[in-house]
């Protein structure tokens, strides 16, 4: 095959590669189908997103490309890993704004993954050292987590009563609104 024919074939392959074709996702027009998945980083000191995250996410942003943020906790009780970002307070929302702006400046689209760890937690992460909340009072077996040398011994959870569930749903609702506010 001549060099020019080879180049033509390569161009055709690129043009038809489905990953690189546009996709309409609701009101978002993605220019390709490569999505950055949520990747926990544990670099948001005291659950406040840091300025260095603007650099991290903007380096991974592409025009019309979708990024899903690292899992972001919806409340104090939702925490189970050190230094994961939150999105329940005004300070956190303000901190997210510069990160989102940096992604938007490159034409990227960013969604926040909102998160409650349930019983994957210990007393030390919980307000007033209370029991982590869950759908069950059964305790998880210890697990080795990233950023830890020893398996984590989870604290026995408290099973939520049915009438407490709307409060958690509301925390998710507020977190979603906060994420939209950060992206305005
Ligand atoms: C370091 C690390 C952190 C991760 N953090 C999250 C997270 O915050 N939320 C989530 O839903 N998945 C998380 N994942 C799962 C990745 O999103 C998943 O590995 C990725 O989508 C690729 O899928 P695969 O592992 O099934 O190939 C994490 C994975 C790794 C390796």
UniProtKB/TrEMBL annotation:
Pfam families: Oxidored_FMN (PF00724). Coiled coil: none annotated. Residues 19-183 form the NADH:flavin oxidoreductase/NADH oxidase N-terminal domain. Keywords: Flavoprotein, FMN, NADP. Its cofactor is FMN. Belongs to the NADH:flavin oxidoreductase/NADH oxidase family. This is NADH:flavin oxidoreductase/NADH oxidase N-terminal domain-containing protein. The lineage of its organism: Eukaryota, Viridiplantae, Streptophyta, Embryophyta, Tracheophyta.
């Amino acid at each position: 095959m001549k060099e020019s024919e080879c180049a033509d074939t390569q161009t055709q392959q690129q043009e038809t590669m489905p990953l690189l074709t546009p996709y309409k996702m609701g009101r978002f027009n993605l220019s390709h189908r490569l999505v950055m998945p949520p990747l926990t980083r544990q670099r948001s000191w005291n659950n406040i997103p840091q300025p260095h995250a603007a650099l991290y996410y903007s380096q991974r942003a592409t025009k019309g490309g979708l990024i899903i943020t690292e899992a972001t906790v919806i409340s104090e009780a939702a925490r189970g890993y050190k230094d994961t970002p939150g999105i329940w307070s005004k300070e956190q929302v303000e901190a997210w704004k510069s990160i989102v702006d940096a992604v938007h400046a490159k034409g990227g689209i960013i969604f926040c993954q909102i998160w409650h760890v349930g019983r994957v937690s210990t007393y030390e992460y919980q307000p007033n050292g209370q029991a982590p909340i869950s759908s069950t009072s059964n305790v998880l077996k210890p697990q080795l987590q990233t950023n830890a040398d020893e398996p984590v011994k989870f604290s026995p959870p408290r099973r939520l009563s049915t009438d407490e569930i709307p409060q958690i749903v509301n925390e998710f609702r507020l977190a979603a609104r906060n994420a939209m506010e950060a992206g305005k």
